[in-house]
Amino acid sequence: MRDLLSRQSVLVGLDATTKKDVLQAMSEQASKISGRDAHAIFDTLWEREKLGTTGVGQGIAIPHGRVEKLDKVYGLFARLSQPVTFEAIDDKPVDLVFLLLAPESAGADHLHALATVSRILRNPILCEQLRRAKDESAIYQLLTEAEAIEAA
Predict the structure, then answer these.
(1) Which of 63, 52, 5 is nearest to 33 (CA)?
(2) Which end of the chain is more exposed for a tag (fewer CB within 10 A), N or C?
């Protein structure tokens, strides 16, 4: 998780009213972290959403996609200020979003990152802690420690 996430890639209180707003705001932040164009990132994420929702249920979404000229897999986590409709599989609104971006050539790395994030966010206790955490540092710590606890 430390390879995917930095303290700068954790957002708390992201203001958005739609899925599109969430993806646009997160694309802007992902652009700053990855050095890739925000519009290209958004287009990749939006095309993926057209194939089927990345809202996995229980208030969680894991939008993801492959972006040209990335040097590694990047993660970005956001806790939304208000839940938004995401067409999630359980029809519940989403308030926790973990975005993953991978290089076009990243086969197994992309799938491994997606599996790791999905596994960690299936823990309802962790998700409740993420919802109550006071700031970005606390969320970063929860996410990075969650992987270490699972690996033990």
Answers:
(1) 5
(2) C
